[in-house]
Amino acid sequence: MRLFLASYRFGAHQQRLLDMVGEHKRVAVIANACDAWGDAARSSALTSDLVPLRKLGFDACEVDLRDFIGAPDALREALTDAGFLWVRGGNTFVLRAQLARSGGDHVLAQMLSEDAIVYAGYSAGACVLTPSLAGLDTVDDPAEVEPTCGIAPIWTGLGLVSQAIVPHYDSDPDATAQAVRYREQGVAHWALTDEQVVLVDGGEPELL
Fold it and tell me: Long-range pairs for 12-16 at CB < 8 Å and ≥24 separation?
């Protein structure tokens, strides 16, 4: 399994991601964490990720989970065309719901277990891989899920890493406060500054 989980984009470790991706030049960008933002804001957010990826020489195109509702086999085929998946930030609960509706939660778990794709995600794109989303409602609004996705919020993450992740530690007061609450509750977590990443490259997670 190969994971690059950041607080904000590449953090301070862009080269580590490039080394892990290797010769793969096609990247599928998932921006569904932004689905509650409205068309203009969502489009701007997507562009803000496509541009730096393309500047690095990647053939970056969106894979919109809304196009694969109830079609996990088609989603897997779309992701198989890319060796690298980039999942941007936004609302973790909205992203989790769209993964469930498309079957992307199961597809990603299977592809990652087979080492068929590299997963890079930041903020919501990192948090969604954790065991539980409990506590993230202090920074992301689960009430956005039902009007956006038509289903109730899902509070379990994909469970592909063993600890909670708190992005934007020391830059977002709400995130910093949530990390304090996790410590007080004895919840294992990584509190990531915008320079830090959690890296998994075939072994145990490494905090960089």
Answer: 12/195, 12/196, 12/208, 13/197, 13/199, 13/208, 14/56, 16/197, 16/199, 16/208
